[in-house]
Specification:
Helix content is about 55%, strand content about 5%. With about 475 residues, it is mainly alpha-helical. The strands form 3 sheets. The protein has a two-stranded parallel ribbon. A two-stranded antiparallel ribbon has the order 2-5. Strands 3-4 form a two-stranded antiparallel sheet. β3 and β4 form a beta hairpin.
Length: about 475
């Protein structure tokens, strides 16, 4: 079907038949702004993207105060990881005393929580944090039996949210922030928070390093809002597909590449506030899911008939923004059309979407059903060298982002793990077998191989010009 035939099928007052605004110029008088269309269907805000426009709830109402006070107690007591070297008797007793308190908590009613998405999100955040505190202060020789007081409401709340009952990226980043200083307000509401005006609400270690680790991702989400706007503007132009559209799509793709390079800069800036050794030894272990449990223990949710199975820890792979870039550019990492990553990698990337808020999953599905994919359009129009160069520039920017991610993984995980291995081998020659184990991410992945394979496939998505 031609673009003209598609246009003929639309009513004369349809927004796609109105004079087209140039996104890079902005909304002009008499032009219809389509930027908010369907945003509420996907919980995507035009100011803050996948993050909520206002700081998430910082406390549940009085009916669930026992959960909040249990989390407060864990953070205020600065409970220590059971894998910490030279754990003192006092630290062990403090953790056991807190766990005993959690075991004695009653099962609180949940019916009133289900009327509010905001309450459900906060409840999931609080209960998963309590659960991870409980599990990772247990001695490694102890079985993981999550008390009914936590497991029963957590599984029920997770079912309502269609999320696994485990700490996710949304618990650490999307729904775990506040502003340091009040924001300016316009007639449309509060402005998006400045990237340097953020703080985290709750943390396991209570360190600045942990906060900076979370906020690096939050800043990427906020800077990525412009990328989402560029995607929307590009898809509007793809529907028309004329010479003006090609010129605008070219400009949008160049701008998208610039935005993604900003995301790379923000990612690398995490080094300024988060120490690698502190992260590896004192922060990262709190995030581990059941498939990364250091003692390979089975997590048992007491009082729950159908035991949960999706229990990977939080990961940057759970960010809908990064998946959206893949889907939009057709990089074969999420929705493979031609060639693509190996089936196990593809399955893993899709499995990461299970850990996203359900509305964000719906957004990705909607994006993947776009009838005029930008990659297909570029390949059909590859004689236009400017368009081709702009698309390849966007692809290259995502590849560079993944290069930076691998660099961060090397600094924060691979290097500290190697040092730890060496120390263990010196202390105990029989510990060499530990060094042979595959290094896994908090999401349970074969970390290095997976990241490199996805990065390499991104590089292969560059479109060659026709001869």
């Amino acid at each position: 079907m031609s673009c003209q035939q598609s246009a003929d099928m639309l009513p004369p007052d349809h927004f796609l038949l109105q004079p087209r605004q140039d996104f890079l110029i902005g909304v002009q008088e008499g032009h219809i702004d389509t930027s908010t269309l369907a945003a509420h269907d996907f919980d995507v805000d035009t100011r803050t993207g996948f993050m909520p426009p206002d700081p998430p709830l910082s406390r549940l109402p009085a009916q669930w105060e026992l959960w909040e006070t249990a989390l407060d107690a864990a953070m205020q007591a600065k409970l220590q990881l059971s894998v910490k070297r030279c754990l003192t008797v006092e630290e062990k007793n403090s953790s056991e005393s807190w766990r005993e308190h959690v075991r004695k908590l009653p099962i609180l009613p949940m019916s009133e929580l289900t009327h509010s998405e905001l309450l459900l999100r906060r409840a999931h955040h609080v209960l998963t944090f309590i659960m991870h505190f409980y599990i990772y202060t247990l001695p490694l020789s102890s079985s993981v039996l999550i008390p009914e007081s936590i497991s029963v409401p957590l599984v029920a709340i997770s079912n309502h949210l269609q999320l696994p009952p485990v700490v996710t990226y949304s618990d650490n980043v999307l729904y775990n922030w506040d502003v340091i200083h009040p924001r300016a307000q316009t007639e449309l509401g509060f402005e998006a928070p400045a990237l340097d005006n953020l703080r985290s609400q709750d943390m396991f270690s209570g360190t600045i390093d942990e906060q900076e680790f979370y906020l690096a991702s939050a800043r990427i989400e906020l800077r990525g809002v412009e990328a989402l706007e560029l995607m929307r503007a590009t898809m509007d132009e793809l529907f028309v597909g004329d010479k003006i559209a090609i010129r605008r799509i070219t400009a949008y793709l160049y701008k998208l590449a610039s935005v993604v390079r900003d995301l790379t800069t923000i990612l690398l800036d995490v080094r300024e506030g988060c120490d690698p050794n502190t992260f590896y030894h004192s922060i990262r272990p709190w995030f581990r899911g059941a498939d990364s449990d250091p003692a390979h223990r089975k997590w048992v949710f007491e009082g729950v008939e159908e035991q949960p199975t999706d229990l990977s820890g939080p990961s940057a792979g759970q960010s809908a923004l990064i998946h959206a870039l893949d889907v939009f550019l057709g990089l074969d990492n999420c929705n493979v059309i031609e060639g693509g990553v190996a089936p196990d990698q593809r399955t893993l990337l899709r499995r990461m979407q299970i850990y996203m808020p359900r509305y964000h999953r719906n957004f990705l599905r909607h994006l993947s059903t776009n009838p005029r994919p930008v990659r297909t359009f570029v390949m059909q129009t590859r004689s236009d060298m400017n368009l081709l160069d702009a698309y390849n520039s966007a692809v290259q920017s995502v590849k560079e982002f993944r290069d930076a991610h691998i660099k961060i993984v090397a600094i924060y995980i691979i290097a500290p793990a190697a040092r730890e291995r060496t120390e263990l081998e010196h202390a105990d020659p029989e510990a060499k077998e530990v060094g042979k184990q595959v290094l896994k991410g908090t999401g349970g992945t074969d970390l290095v191989r997976f990241l490199k394979d996805v990065r390499d496939k991104t590089a292969e998505a560059v479109v060659e010009p026709t001869l």
